[in-house]
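Could you help me review a protein record that somebody else here produced? This is what I was given.
***
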Amino acid sequence: MVNMKIKRSIYKQLADDLNRPEVSIILGPRQVGKTFLLKKLESGANARGLRTRYYNLELPHDLLAFNKDDRDLFRMLTDDLDVVFIDEFHYLPNVSKLFKAVYDTDAWW
């Protein structure tokens, strides 16, 4: 019972944060529900009319989409999107640099 309350609390907080211009990172051990949470957040964002894109970098075609020069990658993550979900982001080299570049621009607000 306590575990479900914690999960709902995390979901609500993250769902509320989708309206804010920030980068949120969900960390945790394998098989605890991070992917489920991301998909649920994306579904909720879509239901609210937000334009989203979900990438799972364990999937070769999603990882390949990130094999672009910095400018094209930045456009892919910011043009015509309100929220981007990146699952298994640790597969990207220099991912913190990418997150910082997206956050530091005014492309989202």
About this structure: DSSP finds five helices and two strands in the chain. The first helix runs from residue 2 to 17. Residues 2-104 form one domain. The CA atoms of residues 68 and 74 lie 9 Å apart.
